[in-house]
Design a protein that fits this description.
Distance between the termini: 18 Å
Bound molecules: flavin-adenine dinucleotide
Shape: globular
Structural class: alpha/beta
Radius of gyration: 21 Å
Length: 392
């Protein structure tokens, strides 16, 4: 943490999600006085896991929290892709990948990750819950944030880390409509153990069937995190009482342990959401205001990179704001220039991946599966070099 002449610089961050919390730590570490505003009354209790790929782990290490995340999560030792009925398509070379990028992927409970990030801030930042931003205005010297309860906040810059339905983005860019992915997601956490996927190895598998995908991964502490993506009309999310039956129905007869892990999950521990992304935009900043994370580049979860990209944004933002001799607006523009083409590529590749995985066309499925079997393990590592081997 730097001290001294930059202590007077005040940054406001809207949203205490993964992106906002990482940005707060990164800016605090550069000597900024940070106020973080979150509309919820505390850390959101999202009952799901999040995979942290090697590029995310690299950022967390630079922020000084990787050890805690590793202790609370589980390394992904195995990552198989199978057909819906269990035929192995590829056993991804996780050891080779970990060696190459300096870290395996980890999976951690979202609430634990956010708690670690919040604890890392401790009293070094002013975190205000139950503060819903409704708008902002700026002049040449500062930004004023306006909240639903009538309060205001002032700072030299404002970072909109307020997620996929960002109010900051709406004011900055106008209405940028969300794009429905064509599928809905169910996610669950359950106490479960299957001999084929020993907990001490970690990880698990994905099974791909026509228009559906199921993922199974060890989350640590004897828990399995599973997710299902099912092609559906928009507006499908299921009421809590129907989720388990729906999942059992959709995956009846699939590769075991799929039905067994769903059956072992408490109804109240299953989440249901339609999945969206945002068309990439060519602009994230206006004067002293900038977007970060899903607010800037919401993407489909098919590369497991939304959180990782938000973390990378946070670090690059703080690097660009190390020295603001040329002024804050130009430092924010520099941040945008560093990040926009990479995140646009990730948004596009995630969308492409979703098409490949969720296809219902029999000929496309045959070709896809044939290719997955044929590609040598080293190619599976190489084709994600640009993503996981990114230097910050
Ligand atoms: C099914 C699914 C699986 C995923 N899996 C992975 C994965 O394995 N790995 C990965 O890296 N990513 C994954 N992602 C993506 C990842 O969850 C997101 O990209 C990430 O959470 C974005 O973080 P964020 O901080 O930008 O936004 P959010 O996490 O949405 O946080 C935004 C915060 O802003 C607050 N907020 C909103 N509006 C206001 C307001 N007006 N005023 C004040 N506060 C406000 C919200 O309450 C929230 O706390 C997945 C996403 C989905 C949907």
């Amino acid at each position: 943490m730097k001290a001294g002449n930059s202590n007077s610089r005040r940054a406001m961050i809207i949203g205490a999600g993964i992106g906002g919390l990482c940005a707060a730590i990164a800016l605090r570490n550069e000597g900024w006085k940070v106020t973080l505003y979150e509309r919820s009354s505390g850390i959101r209790q999202v009952g799901a896991g999040i995979v942290l790929a090697a590029n995310a782990m690299k950022v967390l290490r630079k922020l000084g929290v990787a050890d805690q995340v590793q202790a609370e999560g589980a390394p992904i030792g195995r990552a198989e892709i199978r057909t819906w009925d269990g035929k192995l398509l590829v056993d991804l070379p996780t050891t080779q990948q970990a060696k190459k990028y300096g870290s395996p992927s980890y999976i951690v409970h979202r609430v634990k990750l956010q708690t670690i990030l919040l604890d890392a801030l401790g009293k070094t930042a002013d975190v205000q819950f139950s503060k819903k931003l409704v708008g902002w205005n700026q002049d040449k010297d500062q930004v004023t944030a306006v909240f639903e309860d009538g309060c205001t906040g002032e700072g030299e810059l404002l970072i909109g880390a307020d997620g996929i339905r960002s109010i900051v983005r709406r004011q900055l860019l106008g209405n940028t409509s969300l794009r429905y992915s064509g599928f809905t997601a169910l996610r669950g956490i359950s106490v479960f153990d299957d001999k084929r996927y020993p907990l001490d190895v970690g990880g698990g598998f994905e099974a791909w069937g026509p228009g559906k995908r199921f993922g199974y991964t060890y989350l640590g502490n004897g828990l399995i995190y599973w997710f299902a993506a099912i092609n559906s009309e928009e507006g499908t999310p299921y009421p809590a009482a129907e989720r388990k039956q729906k999942a059992l129905h959709e995956f009846r007869g699939w590769y075991q342990p799929i039905e067994a892990v769903i059956a072992a999950t408490e109804e109240t521990d299953i989440l249901s959401h339609d999945i969206y992304d945002c068309r990439p935009t060519g602009r994230w900043t206006e004067g002293r205001v900038a977007l970060l994370g899903d607010a800037a580049h919401a993407m489909l979860p098919n590369l497991g990179q939304g959180g990782a990209q938000a973390m990378e944004d946070a670090l690059v933002l703080a690097q660009c704001l190390q020295s603001v001799d040329t002024g804050i607006p130009s430092a924010l523009q520099e941040y945008e220039q560093h990040r926009i083409s990479r995140t646009t590529k990730v948004v596009r590749q995630s969308r492409l991946m979703a098409k490949v995985v969720q296809t219902e066309i029999p000929a496309a499925i045959r070709v896809r599966n044939w290719l997955l079997r044929k590609i040598p393990p080293s190619m599976h590592v190489k084709r994600f070099d640009w993503l996981l081997g990114f230097e910050l």
